[in-house]
Amino acid sequence: MKYRPLLQRIALLLGLLAAGQTLAETPPKEIRIGGPSLATTGSNHWGWGLLGIAHSRGLFQEEFKNDDVSFKFVGLNTVPMVGEALASNQIDFAGQGDLISLIGRSAGVKTRYILPVSKFANAYLAVPKDSPIQSIEDLKGKRVAYTRGNYVHLQVIRILAAHGMTEKDVRQVNLDMATGNTALATGDVDAVFSGPDLLALRDSGVARIAYTTRDRDLHATAQTGLIVRDDFASRYPETTARVVKVLVRAAQWGSDETNREQVYGPWWSFRLQSAIAEDLEGRSWSQLASPLFDPFLVAQYNDTYRLAKQLRLLRGKDFDVNQWMDRSFLDKALQELGLEHHWAELDANGDAIGKPGA
Amino acid sequence: MNAIAFRRLRRGLTLPALLLLIWWATYQFGLSDSRLFVPPGKLLDTALNSAEGRAIWSTLGLSLARGLTGLAIGISLGLAVGVLLGVSRRLERFFGLTLHSIKQVSLFAWLPLLTLWFGFGESSKLAFIAWAAFFPVLLNTLEGVCSVPRELVEVSRVSGFTRWQTFSRLILPSALPSIFNGVYLALMFAWLATLGAEYMLGSGDGIGVVLMESRAEFRIDLMLLAIALVGLIGFLLDITAKALERRLLRWRNH
Amino acid sequence: MNVSRASHLATSVAGGMQSPWQSTQLKRIGHLLWPLLLPFSLGLFWWLGSRQEWVASQVLPAPDIVLESARDLIGNGLLQEHVLISLWRVLLGFLLGSALGLLLGAAMGLSETTSDYLYPLLRLVAYVPLLGWLPLLMILFGIGETLKIILVAQAAMLPVALNTSNAIRAVPRRLIEVGQVYGFSQTQVLTKVIIPAAFPSIWSSIRYALTKSWLALVVVELLASSEGLGFLMVDSRQLFQLDVMLVAVAAIGLIGYLLDLGLALVERRILRWRRASFE
Fold it and tell me: Taking CB atoms and an 8 Å limit, are A77 and B216 in contact across chains?
């Protein structure tokens, strides 16, 4: 067509304008990302999942090396502090488990969910070696240690529900990970629900694993995500997109099977790498580190919302989870990095839809 | 050392020595299979030779610095406010009700609110320690200043003392014993609050963190060492305060 | 009020002047209201702050929301449950600890030998703050009721024991000698001279011990519990229900106040008895 050169020129102009827009936003002087400081991580390390990978490989600083930006990685002592820090404007981004991020949003904290950080986290139930407890039903009336509000909490609810029980059927004891494990060893609690750290406890000969979601129930696994404050995302959309891009890069690196051994540490714990290796065996990193908002993820979050609402854990007005999840930043990052087909989407049952691209 | 003092020392050391002996014997003769029993020798060994043992001293220093800073803030504020409320009836009635109600709220109940107001870093720990020290000093200073007999104050006024002179020559010296009571309490609460802040707001370093971690990792030797060091600091703070009091009282009696 | 007085008031108010009686009345009202000004303004500030969103409402909920949560908790009995559990623990631990403390303190105060042996050990233990002992106690006693009672008892026992001992030894020799001159037996010296003289100091250490006991209980419930006010504080915080947490904080404060009040009442009763026994 004879208008092609003109169209091309207009396209070029528009492209330049767009680029100009991109360069127009000055990122803030300091970007603060917060997450719970996991007892298992060890000092000098921060984060888990995609955040852990990005932090340990310095990807944040690399992306922003030409800008006058410093990153502050805040490790908060307990899970509730993360929500409070986000609500009171002390951090801009937070890594949070599914349940607590929904609770926060329901309480009125204006946030957006912009990226999954880790998927398919398994829960384990540990009991003393000589305990008579063999199944979930045996937990009725027993003292069970787990922390409410963190990502394990919801898994516990789901596991109990799948066996016809509720939280009221067990005596929950609120102990942090270390205290809980010690309490199991001394017989102060009858069982502990937690993550792969319990595998290390089993290896030390103190406990045995009575139940796990691994290989059993995909829907009882936990997902965590990156939450951003709404006003930050509105004010610095470009910066937010770049942060997401950093994490997508981290996901790309983490999904590469040749890196498999090196991912264990930053993914969850440098100290307990063999435990994680065992926990994640049988699932490809490509699935674990997938940053996609696939139907499985969305269905999980919607189900979490429903469950939490039913249990009166969400106290505010109803809101639409799908609206709260903002995938625009991810889509942009995938496009910029050319990774749109790098990962397979999983449908609501966890089965792959089609195949990942080359 | 004369005979009586020597006997006192000997007696005082008996029980601790006995406990140590029982401890050593339990380990040596395998009387208990609890993982609790580290031989006393191991304790010393950890203290002097291991990496953690060496690190513990700097950690202790960190906690101490933190505690002393909070303590200083709390004491100065407590003194200032205590004196102010003591000399001004009006102010005392203004703040009195609120203060006496607030003082009932147990110290650790303030923790979550403090993190909301001071963030999650060092400042909330310092605020917590300062708060713990503030109240005892405030209340005792107030009591000390108020308990100066009215007649004495009037006599000094009549004798031509200025406001300032009444204060510095009469009120302050006679309030000193009460003030020091407050300071002793503040010392104790501040050191307690330092540990508490480190347990609860654990991000960072400190002897409290060592205590918690050593329990989690079943390192009883480290834990006992940390306990001993914590007690040592408590002891040092106490004798420092006592020495200070003696010095100040001597000045007062001139 | 008769007509002339009324008209006098009317004219003086209209004229901007006040009668002496009026100004005294106003002053009295002002005087009474003065202490309430600060709490009231703080409350107002809080209400405004949450209304205007100076602080996120999730982080500092509005006063009316907190009140509503309080009503809910009382309504479904949850608050009472936790309060009773905490109260039970603190009272048991406090009574055990202070009783033991009185016994030990009296023994040390009356017998120099006992004091020589025991006092240094107790003093050493006292130099380590409560929380310093907690990890060790957790390992020794687990995390159940025993731990809590023992920690609370320890918190109460140490100050009482040490202060009782000091108070008894601080009773001036002269007083004891006077009693002996009067032909008092040992018991009489104890009950009529020593105890009354040492009482104020001992009592204040008991009141202090109660404060420490309450403090200790709150701490241990924060760290290792499944019921009680401290637990309620932690649990509600973990579920981002800071209004419930504030209710727990208020309850902790209120209980602390009531416990102290209880002791004050007991003190008054004892003083009355003392006075009676001397008449």
Answer: no
Q: Are residues A71 and A213 in the same domain?
A: no
Are A63 and A86 part of one and the same domain? Answer: yes
The number of CA neighbours under 13 Å toward the Cβ of A120 is 24
pTM score, whole prediction:
0.84
Task: Go through the domains of chain C in sequence order and give each one's CATH number.
Answer: 67-277 (1.10.3720.10)
Shortest Cα distance, chain A CAs vs residue C72, angstroms = 13
Interchain pair C219, B211: CB under 8 A? no
- A192 and A229 share a domain? no
Same domain for A208 and A228? Answer: no
- Domain end point (choices A189, A219, A249): A219
Same domain, A130 and A106: no
Residue A246: per-residue pLDDT: 92
From chain C, the residues in CB contact with B105 under 8 A are 249, 252-253, 256
Q: What's the CATH code of the domain at A161?
A: 3.40.190.10
Q: Which residues of C touch A315 (CB under 8 A)?
A: 241
B113 touches chain A (CB under 8 A): no
Which residue positions in chain C have pLDDT lower than 50?
Answer: 1, 279
Write the pLDDT tens digit of every residue in A13-40: 666 666 555 556 788 889 999 988 776 5
Alpha helices of chain B — where are they, by DSSP H?
3-28, 40-49, 51-87, 89-102, 111-118, 122-146, 150-158, 163-165, 172-200, 207-216, 220-252
Mean pLDDT of B239-245: 88
Cβ distance B203 to A182 less than 8 Å, yes or no, reads no
Q: How many residues does chain C have?
A: 279
ipTM for this model: 0.83
- Reported as a single tens digit per residue, the pLDDT across A68-118 is 888 888 888 778 888 888 888 889 999 998 999 999 999 888 999 999 998
